[in-house]
From TrEMBL:
Belongs to the flavin oxidoreductase frp family. Coiled coil: none annotated. Keywords: Flavoprotein, FMN, NADP, Oxidoreductase. This is NADPH-flavin oxidoreductase. It comes from Marinomonas gallaica. Residues 9-163 form the Nitroreductase domain. GO terms for molecular function: oxidoreductase activity. InterPro entries: Flavin_OxRdtase_Frp (IPR016446), Nitroreductase (IPR029479), Nitroreductase-like (IPR000415). The gene is frp. The lineage of its organism: Bacteria, Pseudomonadati, Pseudomonadota, Gammaproteobacteria, Oceanospirillales. Gene3D superfamilies: NADH Oxidase.
Protein backbone atom coordinates (compact mmCIF):
# COMPACT_ATOMS: atom_id res chain seq x y z
CA UNK A 1 0.00 0.00 0.00
CA UNK A 2 1.12 3.55 -0.62
CA UNK A 3 1.00 6.22 2.09
CA UNK A 4 -2.48 7.45 1.10
CA UNK A 5 -4.02 3.98 1.40
CA UNK A 6 -2.24 3.44 4.71
CA UNK A 7 -3.69 6.71 5.99
CA UNK A 8 -7.20 5.79 4.86
CA UNK A 9 -7.04 2.40 6.56
CA UNK A 10 -5.83 3.97 9.83
CA UNK A 11 -8.90 6.16 10.45
CA UNK A 12 -10.27 6.21 14.00
CA UNK A 13 -12.92 8.42 15.57
CA UNK A 14 -11.23 10.65 18.15
CA UNK A 15 -13.26 11.71 21.18
CA UNK A 16 -10.52 13.14 23.41
CA UNK A 17 -8.49 16.14 22.28
CA UNK A 18 -5.55 18.11 23.63
CA UNK A 19 -5.85 21.84 24.25
CA UNK A 20 -3.45 22.60 21.39
CA UNK A 21 -5.09 24.89 18.82
CA UNK A 22 -4.68 24.59 15.09
CA UNK A 23 -2.02 26.83 13.61
CA UNK A 24 -3.30 30.07 12.13
CA UNK A 25 -4.56 29.41 8.62
CA UNK A 26 -4.54 25.61 8.91
CA UNK A 27 -8.33 25.26 8.95
CA UNK A 28 -8.58 27.37 5.82
CA UNK A 29 -5.98 25.14 4.14
CA UNK A 30 -7.93 22.02 5.14
CA UNK A 31 -11.20 23.42 3.77
CA UNK A 32 -9.47 24.47 0.56
CA UNK A 33 -8.14 20.93 0.14
CA UNK A 34 -11.58 19.53 0.95
CA UNK A 35 -13.10 21.60 -1.86
CA UNK A 36 -11.26 19.35 -4.29
CA UNK A 37 -13.92 16.69 -3.64
CA UNK A 38 -16.04 15.48 -6.52
CA UNK A 39 -19.35 17.32 -6.95
CA UNK A 40 -22.36 16.39 -9.06
CA UNK A 41 -22.50 18.82 -11.99
CA UNK A 42 -20.04 20.98 -10.03
CA UNK A 43 -22.88 22.34 -7.90
CA UNK A 44 -20.71 22.35 -4.72
CA UNK A 45 -23.90 22.41 -2.68
CA UNK A 46 -22.48 22.72 0.83
CA UNK A 47 -21.51 25.27 3.44
CA UNK A 48 -19.35 24.73 6.52
CA UNK A 49 -20.08 26.69 9.70
CA UNK A 50 -17.07 27.11 11.99
CA UNK A 51 -18.40 27.57 15.51
CA UNK A 52 -15.99 29.44 17.77
CA UNK A 53 -18.34 31.20 20.22
CA UNK A 54 -18.12 29.22 23.51
CA UNK A 55 -21.77 29.89 24.35
CA UNK A 56 -22.91 28.57 20.99
CA UNK A 57 -20.64 25.55 21.37
CA UNK A 58 -22.32 24.80 24.70
CA UNK A 59 -25.76 25.13 23.13
CA UNK A 60 -24.78 22.87 20.25
CA UNK A 61 -23.45 20.30 22.67
CA UNK A 62 -26.76 20.27 24.56
CA UNK A 63 -28.75 20.04 21.32
CA UNK A 64 -26.58 17.22 19.94
CA UNK A 65 -26.75 14.68 22.73
CA UNK A 66 -24.41 16.26 25.31
CA UNK A 67 -21.26 14.99 23.61
CA UNK A 68 -18.62 16.85 25.62
CA UNK A 69 -15.96 16.80 22.91
CA UNK A 70 -18.02 19.37 20.99
CA UNK A 71 -16.76 21.89 23.54
CA UNK A 72 -13.33 20.35 24.06
CA UNK A 73 -12.09 20.04 20.47
CA UNK A 74 -9.99 22.81 18.99
CA UNK A 75 -12.56 23.25 16.23
CA UNK A 76 -16.21 22.37 15.77
CA UNK A 77 -17.68 22.48 12.28
CA UNK A 78 -21.25 22.05 11.12
CA UNK A 79 -21.53 20.73 7.57
CA UNK A 80 -24.66 21.93 5.80
CA UNK A 81 -26.29 20.84 2.56
CA UNK A 82 -26.80 24.16 0.78
CA UNK A 83 -28.94 24.74 -2.28
CA UNK A 84 -29.41 28.46 -1.56
CA UNK A 85 -26.44 29.65 -3.63
CA UNK A 86 -27.38 27.38 -6.51
CA UNK A 87 -31.01 28.52 -6.50
CA UNK A 88 -29.95 32.16 -6.59
CA UNK A 89 -27.38 31.49 -9.32
CA UNK A 90 -30.02 29.80 -11.48
CA UNK A 91 -32.45 32.68 -10.88
CA UNK A 92 -29.84 35.18 -12.09
CA UNK A 93 -29.91 33.50 -15.49
CA UNK A 94 -33.55 34.55 -15.85
CA UNK A 95 -35.31 31.27 -15.06
CA UNK A 96 -37.79 30.51 -12.29
CA UNK A 97 -35.96 27.84 -10.26
CA UNK A 98 -37.80 24.60 -9.55
CA UNK A 99 -37.15 23.69 -5.93
CA UNK A 100 -38.04 20.90 -3.54
CA UNK A 101 -36.98 18.02 -5.80
CA UNK A 102 -35.73 14.84 -4.12
CA UNK A 103 -32.68 14.85 -6.40
CA UNK A 104 -31.69 18.27 -5.03
CA UNK A 105 -31.76 16.85 -1.51
CA UNK A 106 -29.69 13.84 -2.55
CA UNK A 107 -27.12 15.86 -4.50
CA UNK A 108 -26.58 18.42 -1.75
CA UNK A 109 -26.33 15.76 0.95
CA UNK A 110 -23.88 13.66 -1.08
CA UNK A 111 -21.78 16.74 -1.89
CA UNK A 112 -21.65 17.60 1.81
CA UNK A 113 -20.53 14.10 2.77
CA UNK A 114 -17.83 14.07 0.07
CA UNK A 115 -16.33 17.41 1.11
CA UNK A 116 -16.39 16.38 4.78
CA UNK A 117 -14.56 13.15 4.06
CA UNK A 118 -11.96 15.04 2.03
CA UNK A 119 -11.47 17.36 4.99
CA UNK A 120 -11.11 14.36 7.30
CA UNK A 121 -8.37 12.86 5.15
CA UNK A 122 -6.57 16.21 4.88
CA UNK A 123 -6.79 16.69 8.66
CA UNK A 124 -5.50 13.22 9.45
CA UNK A 125 -2.59 13.74 7.08
CA UNK A 126 -1.59 16.65 9.35
CA UNK A 127 -1.77 14.55 12.53
CA UNK A 128 -5.22 15.79 13.53
CA UNK A 129 -8.17 13.66 14.58
CA UNK A 130 -11.89 13.99 13.94
CA UNK A 131 -15.22 12.59 14.99
CA UNK A 132 -18.46 13.12 13.10
CA UNK A 133 -21.47 14.32 15.10
CA UNK A 134 -24.72 13.01 13.63
CA UNK A 135 -26.42 14.28 16.79
CA UNK A 136 -26.94 17.68 15.14
CA UNK A 137 -29.97 16.01 13.52
CA UNK A 138 -31.50 15.45 16.98
CA UNK A 139 -32.71 19.05 17.03
CA UNK A 140 -32.15 20.39 13.51
CA UNK A 141 -34.70 23.20 13.79
CA UNK A 142 -33.14 24.67 16.94
CA UNK A 143 -29.64 24.30 15.49
CA UNK A 144 -30.74 25.95 12.26
CA UNK A 145 -32.09 28.88 14.24
CA UNK A 146 -28.89 29.11 16.27
CA UNK A 147 -26.73 29.10 13.13
CA UNK A 148 -29.19 31.32 11.20
CA UNK A 149 -29.54 28.82 8.37
CA UNK A 150 -31.82 30.11 5.60
CA UNK A 151 -34.30 28.17 3.48
CA UNK A 152 -32.73 25.53 1.21
CA UNK A 153 -29.98 24.82 3.77
CA UNK A 154 -29.95 22.11 6.44
CA UNK A 155 -27.35 20.76 8.93
CA UNK A 156 -26.23 17.26 7.91
CA UNK A 157 -23.68 16.56 10.67
CA UNK A 158 -21.07 18.20 12.83
CA UNK A 159 -17.36 17.46 13.14
CA UNK A 160 -14.99 17.82 16.09
CA UNK A 161 -11.44 18.51 14.94
CA UNK A 162 -8.21 18.77 16.88
CA UNK A 163 -5.06 17.05 18.08
CA UNK A 164 -5.80 13.58 19.54
CA UNK A 165 -5.39 12.92 23.24
CA UNK A 166 -6.05 9.19 22.81
CA UNK A 167 -4.86 6.38 20.57
CA UNK A 168 -7.78 3.98 19.99
CA UNK A 169 -7.47 0.88 17.87
CA UNK A 170 -8.82 0.91 14.34
CA UNK A 171 -12.34 -0.53 14.33
CA UNK A 172 -12.62 -3.59 12.04
CA UNK A 173 -14.59 -3.06 8.83
CA UNK A 174 -16.98 -5.45 7.11
CA UNK A 175 -15.36 -8.27 5.11
CA UNK A 176 -14.45 -7.06 1.65
CA UNK A 177 -16.55 -9.77 -0.02
CA UNK A 178 -19.73 -8.43 1.61
CA UNK A 179 -19.37 -4.99 0.04
CA UNK A 180 -17.51 -5.69 -3.22
CA UNK A 181 -19.74 -7.61 -5.65
CA UNK A 182 -18.89 -8.68 -9.18
CA UNK A 183 -21.30 -8.18 -12.10
CA UNK A 184 -24.45 -8.55 -9.97
CA UNK A 185 -25.66 -8.50 -6.37
CA UNK A 186 -24.80 -11.86 -4.84
CA UNK A 187 -25.22 -12.12 -1.06
CA UNK A 188 -25.30 -15.90 -0.68
CA UNK A 189 -22.09 -15.98 1.37
CA UNK A 190 -22.88 -12.87 3.43
CA UNK A 191 -24.53 -14.64 6.42
CA UNK A 192 -21.43 -16.72 7.14
CA UNK A 193 -19.10 -13.76 6.60
CA UNK A 194 -21.22 -11.53 8.84
CA UNK A 195 -21.23 -14.18 11.56
CA UNK A 196 -17.44 -14.26 11.45
CA UNK A 197 -17.35 -10.46 11.46
CA UNK A 198 -19.66 -10.33 14.49
CA UNK A 199 -17.20 -12.53 16.36
CA UNK A 200 -14.35 -10.21 15.38
CA UNK A 201 -16.30 -7.14 16.50
CA UNK A 202 -17.18 -8.76 19.82
CA UNK A 203 -13.48 -9.39 20.47
CA UNK A 204 -12.75 -5.77 19.50
CA UNK A 205 -15.34 -4.36 21.93
CA UNK A 206 -14.16 -6.66 24.72
CA UNK A 207 -10.56 -5.52 24.23
CA UNK A 208 -11.44 -1.82 23.90
CA UNK A 209 -13.55 -1.76 27.06
CA UNK A 210 -11.53 -4.15 29.19
CA UNK A 211 -14.32 -6.70 29.06
CA UNK A 212 -17.09 -4.22 29.94
CA UNK A 213 -18.91 -4.35 26.60
CA UNK A 214 -20.20 -7.48 24.92
CA UNK A 215 -21.69 -6.60 21.55
CA UNK A 216 -21.16 -7.10 17.84
CA UNK A 217 -21.98 -5.43 14.53
CA UNK A 218 -25.39 -7.05 14.05
CA UNK A 219 -26.47 -6.07 17.55
CA UNK A 220 -25.37 -2.50 16.93
CA UNK A 221 -27.74 -2.35 13.95
CA UNK A 222 -30.81 -3.12 16.06
CA UNK A 223 -31.46 0.42 17.39
CA UNK A 224 -31.54 1.78 13.84
CA UNK A 225 -34.34 -0.59 12.84
CA UNK A 226 -36.26 -1.19 16.06
CA UNK A 227 -38.17 2.09 16.00
CA UNK A 228 -38.58 5.37 14.18
CA UNK A 229 -35.20 7.05 13.99
CA UNK A 230 -35.43 10.86 14.08
CA UNK A 231 -38.97 10.93 12.67
CA UNK A 232 -38.91 14.73 12.79
CA UNK A 233 -36.42 14.95 9.91
CA UNK A 234 -38.94 14.69 7.07
CA UNK A 235 -41.11 17.58 8.28
CA UNK A 236 -38.00 19.62 9.07
CA UNK A 237 -36.53 19.09 5.59
CA UNK A 238 -39.82 20.10 4.00
CA UNK A 239 -39.88 23.24 6.14
CA UNK A 240 -36.40 24.11 4.84
CA UNK A 241 -37.52 23.81 1.22
CA UNK A 242 -36.46 20.20 0.58
CA UNK A 243 -39.92 18.91 -0.26
CA UNK A 244 -38.79 15.61 -1.84
CA UNK A 245 -41.14 15.95 -4.81
Amino acid sequence: MNSVMTLLKSHRSIRKFTEKPLAVGMLEQLVSAAQGASSSNHVQAYSIIRVTDPENRAKLMALSGDQVYIQQAAEFLVFCADMKRNTEAAARTGIEPTMGMTEQLLVSTIDTALVAQNLTIAAESEGLGVVYIGGVRNNPEAISELLRLPEHVYPVFGMCLGYPDQDPDVKPRLPLATVLKQDYYDAQHDPVLIEQYDSEMERYYQARTGGNKSSNWSQSMAPMFSGKLRPHMRDFLISQGFEMK
